[in-house]
Amino acid sequence: MAHGDALVLMTEATQRSLEERLGEALAPHRDPHRPRDNYAAIDTFMAATCRHLAAVDDVLVARVRHDVPDGDGVSHAYLEVARRLEHTLALLKGKLYGEAHAIHLQWRDLFETAHTQLEEHNRSERAMVGALVRHGDPEAGLAVVIAREPVEDEEAGRHRPPVAIDGIEVPRP
């Protein structure tokens, strides 16, 4: 595997997964007696996208700022695109759960915006990853899951394994 391949492959796989989840959310429901069946797919898309945005923000953005020439500019450009997508996801969530500020919005318009912004996000993320591959050490803990002991959930009295978000292990609080 060449320098940075694991990070590039992980990024591409995650982006494909998000695009597939959006496709599932856009698919029309089949049963007229269960009009909310596709709500689960919409919710899954939103949750997966939010987790991915948070993971990229927590892990990649800091590395890009540190390792890439003009890393502040590259990460700032990415964060602008990510924030627009996050705003659209918040509107989708509002529409899905019947919040007053979003009931007037049309599903079609929200999904068209989400699709466009997801494409913009993916381009921006690929550019950021490409810059990191060229100038930094993308293999330094970014694309591998580190095996750790499970975390004990004191409230529930059971062990919980660490959470892996898009191949990056995040310990539970």
Radius of gyration: 18 Å
Which structural category do the helix and sheet elements fall into?
mainly alpha
How far apart are the first and last residues' alpha carbons, in Å? 34 Å
- Overall body shape: elongated
Low-confidence stretches: 143-154, 156-160, 163-170
> The biggest beta sheet, please?
2 strands, antiparallel
Q: Estimate what percentage of residues fall within beta strands.
A: 5-15%
Q: What is the number of helical segments per DSSP (H or I, 4+ residues)? A: 4
The total of beta strands comes to: 4
How many domains make up the coordinates? 1
Reconstruct the topology from this structure.
Layout: H1 5-26, H2 39-67, H3 71-96, H4 107-135, E1 151-153, E2 158-160, E3 163-165, E4 168-170
Helix pairs in contact: 1-2, 1-4, 2-3, 2-4, 3-4
Structure description:
The protein is mainly α. It has one domain (5-147). It is 61% helix and 7% strand. The chain has helices at residues 5-26, 39-67, 71-96, 107-135; strands at residues 151-153, 158-160, 163-165, 168-170. It has a two-stranded antiparallel sheet with strand order 1-2. A two-stranded antiparallel ribbon has the order 3-4. Helix 1 (5-26) runs antiparallel to helix 2 and helix 2 packs antiparallel against helix 3 (71-96). The longest helix has 29 residues, at 39-67. The two termini are 34 Å apart.
